[in-house]
Amino acid sequence: MGGRHLFGRTSLVWCCGAILSACSANLASASGTEGLQQPRTEVSSITIHIPIPVPALAELYGGIHRDLASHRAAAREWVALGGGTGFLKYRIWPGEQGFKTTGGRLFSQATFAFGVEYAKRLNGSLTKVAECGQRDATAGTGRLSVQVATTFAQGRGYTVLPASTVAAIEPTGSCLLSEQNVDAAPLMAQVYRSELRGILPAVDRKAASLVTLKPPVARVWKELQEPLLLDEAQALWLVVNPEAVGPAGVGALSDAPSAGFGVTARPTVVRGAQPLSRYLPLPDAQDRLQDDGFHVTFALQVPIDEANQRLREAVVGQEWSLGVGTIKIVGATLYPLGTQVGIELTLQGLLPLTLRLKGTPAYDESTGRILFREVDYTIKERTPATDLAEEWLHEPLREELAGRLVLPIREELDLMRKALESGLNRDLTGGRLRGTVQQLSLKELAVQTNSLSATFKTDGSLHYDALADGLLP
Predict the structure, then answer these.
(1) Distances from the Cα of 111 to the Cαs of 143, 187, 293, 440, 442, in angstroms?
(2) What is the pLDDT averaged over residues 460-473?
(3) What confidence score (pLDDT) does residue 292 get?
(4) If 162 and its partner were Cys, which of 207, 296, 377, 409 is the partner (CB 3.0–4.6 Å)?
């Protein structure tokens, strides 16, 4: 984006030059380590995404069936059916298991063989009356397909709370009871569903104890305290300045469950040598944080001589007619005027005089232009001729000058947006930074004795997607 070719426009290009100086190679002849004059920073929000360790949890939930099989093999307990007149005893054998993630949920799947014994209460005691799958102690005869769905919520601090349900349980192989020749698979599916529902809460509690997200959040928190290089050639650094952390909900990142944390920060941009890092410990997680978007305010100073040169290149030579004669701008100089911008214009032609203009700069996003409101002027030299011209031409001349003090900057702001988005989208040590700049607008222009101060603001979003590998201890 560097180079003075961006400033050769018939408008107040000095303003654009001031804004773009943050990323231009043609800055004023100041020291290369000159810092930016920083405005009061605004509160911003960054969302960090910490992958939930799905493989470890899938192993835990996949072991449910193995644990139930061991329990049943050891206890050999009868399960009462219906009103207590029938009883079932089952065995299951190891089978196939796997998992998948969809929409931020974990689905643990298993298919295994089973065998059952069926008994009735006769004469006050249980009597086995039928069985299936018991003679083949390695495979059984019936088969079940089971799927457990686990969702995640955020608990207090940096914890995750799993909650599991039986998503599906279907017989995939018959188990015919001897004598009755009745398929026991549907009944087995009902019994096993009830068994799973009974133990899932305890498994969820164990899963919650295995997952602590504080260590990975602490790593990201530390990395966010490191200055981020936005532009190496121009030595522009983003200092995030994180202040607080709070839960932002569990969602899907690349279709896998990920815990979100909102980080409030006061980011700023500096130019020159790499700023010193600060290392504040990870604070306790707040109960709630409001997402106010990500904002960065850029401020810089351009030496007044260079600002005046850019102004002259933009406006000197403009000529127009007021109907009774032509007016031509032959000189232009900036001067301090508080919250407004002062410009001294030298005119020739119908009105050979010097005007001292003042106006309040504003950015019109719909047209992509900087314009000046409340524009007015006074005449520096007071003579009978200028007084007469002032009486008849003040309002037309004021309106004409106000209309000419317009700067089209959409192209330049689009270039700036592209540069910022490039700087905010990169791989970091612990993950991937991804940002957007939805709006870039002028915030303030101020002429000082020795410099022109320009400030503009970006609004957007910033996310940090932590890597799944190596995050958890």
Answers:
(1) 7, 17, 47, 56, 62
(2) 76
(3) 82
(4) 207
Do 5 and 154 belong to one domain? no
- Do 427 and 464 sit in the same domain of this protein? yes
Q: Model pTM?
A: 0.72
Helix (H) or strand (E) holding 312: helix 304-315
Please give the full DSSP string across 328-365, using - where no structure is assigned: EEEEEEEEEETTEEEEEEEEEESS-SEEEEEEEEEEET
Q: How many angstroms separate the Cα of 421 from the Cα of each of 1, 88, 389? A: 14, 64, 52
Are residues 133 and 246 located together in one domain of the fold? no
User: Do 223 and 429 contact (CB within 8 A), yes or no?
Assistant: yes
Mean pLDDT of the chain: 80
Q: Where are the beta strands (DSSP E) in 34-95?
A: 44-51, 79-81, 86-92
pLDDT tens-place string over residues 196-249: 999 999 999 999 998 889 999 999 999 999 998 887 877 878 899 999 999 999
- Shared-domain flag, residues 101 and 223: no
Name residue 334's beta-bridge partners: 343
Residue 393 or 3, more confident = 393
User: Are 240 and 129 within one domain?
Assistant: no
Same domain, 452 and 331: yes
Residue ranges in 120-213 assigned as alpha helix (H): 185-210
Q: What SS3 state is found at 462?
A: strand
- Residue ranges making up the domain that contains 170: 54-210
Cβ burial, residue 278 (10 Å; 0-12/13-18/19+)? exposed
The pair of structure tokens assigned to 126 is: 């249980």
396 within 8 A of 353, measured Cβ to Cβ: no
Q: How many domains does the chain have?
A: 2
Place of tokens 């093999």: 73
Contact 140, 113 (CB under 8 A): yes
H or E stretch including 220?
helix 214-224
Predicted local confidence at residue 208, as pLDDT: 93
43/81 same-domain check: no
Residue 197: both structure tokens together: 């529902």
**Does residue 252 carry a pLDDT above 50?**
yes
Give the tens place of pLDDT for each residue, 318-368. 888 877 778 888 988 888 887 778 888 888 887 788 888 888 877 777 777
Is residue 159 within 8 A of residue 205, CB to CB? The reply is no
**What is the crossing angle of helices 54-62 and 185-210, to 10°?**
140
Q: Is 414 left (phi over 0), alpha (psi -120 to 50) or beta?
A: alpha
